[in-house]
Amino acid sequence: QVQLVESGGGLVQPGGSLRLSCAASGFTLAYYAIGWYRQAPGKEREAVSCISSSDGRTYYADSVKGRFTISRDNAKNTVYLQMNSLKPEDSAHYYCAEVSVPTCRYSGGYWGQGTQVTVSS
Predict the structure, then answer these.
(1) pLDDT tier, 90 (very low <50, low <70, confident <90, very high otherwise)
(2) How far apart are CA 85 and CA 78, in angstroms?
(3) In 3D, which of 89, 88, 84, 106 has the Cα closest to residue 97?
């Protein structure tokens, strides 16, 4: 089955860390630029970060710059989002998707089901 599957979400206290994973099955993730999006209830979907396919160049929204790190392991067919110094406003459903760089705009291709991140004390 061709799909993206996210994992790693959960409940964490403010200041804590989580690492999200985006695993591809049925296709080779290395050929695609992949991005992370998030959406909280009542808010617009926001592009958080993305990584190119060719040279691994990374891009971040201002709201997460310096706290989040995107990376990819092509041998594992997986893209990661390391999230540190989490804030309550980072709470959202996080999705990974095929995107275009450097805009991180969804390209209309692969899109996962998402994983929930809740930052609360």
Answers:
(1) very high
(2) 23
(3) 106
